[in-house]
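Most newcomers find our protein records easier to grasp once they have seen one. A learned vocabulary of local backbone shapes supplies the integers on the structure line. An example says more than a description, so a record of this kind follows:
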Amino acid sequence: MPIRKIFRRFFDLPLRGKLILSFLAVIVIGGVLTLIIGTRIEHRTIISLAEDKVRHDLASAWMVYEERLHSLRDTVRLSATQEFLGTALRRADFEKVAARLDGIRAEFGLDVLNLTDARGRVVVRSRRAAAPVGDDAARDPFIALALKKEASAGTRIVPREELLEEGADLAERARFQFVPTPKAAERPEDHEDKGMMLTAAVPVLDDSGVLLGVLTGGLLFNRNYDLVDRVKEIVFKGEKYKGHDIGTATLFQDDLRIATNVLDDQGRRAVGTRVSREVKEAVLDRGETYVGRAFVVTAWYITAYRPIKDIAGRTIGMLYVGMLERPYIDLRNRVMATFAGIASLCVLFLLGLLAFVASRITRPLAVMVDATGKIASGDLTHRIEAEGRDEIGQLARAFNRMTDELSLAQEDLTQWGRTLERRVEERTRELREIQDQLVVSEKLASLGKMAAGVAHEINNPLTTILINAHLLLERPGREEEEASTLSLIADETTRCAAIVRGLLDFARQTPSQAAPTDINDVIERTLLLLERQASVRNIRIEKALDRTLPPIEVDKSKIQQVFSNLAINACEAMPTGGTLVVAAHLSRDGTHIEITFTDTGIGIPKENIPKLFDPFFTTKSFGTGLGLAVSYGIIWQRGGTILVRSEAGKGTVFTVRIPLADPGDEKRIEEAPQ
């Protein structure tokens, strides 16, 4: 069945079934993984313990081997002190020596006990008294050291010819026909006829220390089972497992078993078999001690192999101890079987517990499904009994709250409709304010053109009237009433001239002398000029200036005129005193500098705000009503704007927004009102 269909059927199951199957899958997968990992850990632990034991057993076996070597050396050394040997060597009379040496050889279980003169020539072979003598043995490394008065002992490989000189039985003991062995490395020959012998050579000295000869003893390991059986007895104490010896020991000549208590499949000692390729490469080729799993003749063992070296340091054989792997594997299997059984019982128990818990969990959910259907049909009065404090109980209470909220949904929708209408009105008002600003801009443009024409036409007549009025006042003999009338004409004409100058300032919009300017510096200078006036009126001036504002290209004098107009207006709006806060900062989008003038004055009526920037509009009993119009024109020329927020009785906020980027003087001049 395709996996997609399996998943589809799984998700179509009831919630209880999905919970049970999901947790069962988690339990089973977790159990299998735990079993696998546990098996590996257990196996490593048991095998590691076995390897530690066999490493210790190898050390014990090597001590037995060293003990046998020391025993041979001590036997030969003790024999070399016999007085009859010195006498025979001094007199060159060896007729009775062979028999006495053969008795010593037999007593101590040696295979070879020979006597060599001071030149290294064999003079006595105890094993074969009638054998030819006189052959030169000085090239033997052990005898060569003894000829230098140094006793030596070790293991060496003995050629077949030398064994034949000692006796055909020794040569026959050393010869092995290779027995085919699984996992062994290939060798070109099919037999071995050399022997491996434990050898000791001790100098024979007279009372004055003069070298008389050398006594050499040897113990042939080939088919000599005394050493390996001794190791087995000491290390493994005859322990068996299912009728098989649990531990074995072996002496190897190269990779050939020459003495062992490992049995072949017919129950005989497995001499003539060879070690596996893996062990041969590690121990014989690389000279390492090998500890690990190895196949030994017919079964797997936990083994340890140590190289045996000759007197020159060449690896000539191995000493082996090993334990059957089967007991440890069976122990591991029993432990893991017990663990698996316990795990299975736990799975069954958990499955039953899971079914019970799943039923307890899903029953309230079924009640909720039923309640949901009733709510969907319109019964908003239906409620669920929330019993527990767990997530299901919380869900039930949340469901009830949801039902309560649904019953209020229609009221919320109605209120939302009203809110929407209110927001539409607010948005319409905002658009109207924007439109009012556009109207102001258009009005200023139109008024600018008209003001330019009117100012030009009126300015010359006013100048003539003013000059003539002053000339008439300077004539002597005027009556007081006439002089008063002429003075009134001059004052009013001067006032008209001031209005005309204001109109010209509003209309001209001359190109600005822009230069990089620190707005904070302009504000500081403007407020410095107003400090005295503000102090007299009991007005406190506060500054909140962002000192990191970048310089911008503006006409410094015109911007100062704008700030001065706004500050003076703010002070005049606080006749009984108050606070003027001047702040400068970057706009949120980082494209403008915003300068705010916030006062705590009487405020501006709502109906007057759209008219603030109209020329000649003023609520004061004095003034021309051109200050804000001129200020707006200056800021508009720079590409900015002036915004107003005010609430009657609470104060007013004028915000001057000047773009950081200069839109260009020529373009503004072309668009400015004329």
Q: What stands out?
A: The chain has four domains: 13-340, 341-407, 427-506, 510-671. Residues 665-674 have pLDDT under 50 and may be disordered. The domain at 13-340 is CATH 3.30.450.220 (Beta-Lactamase).
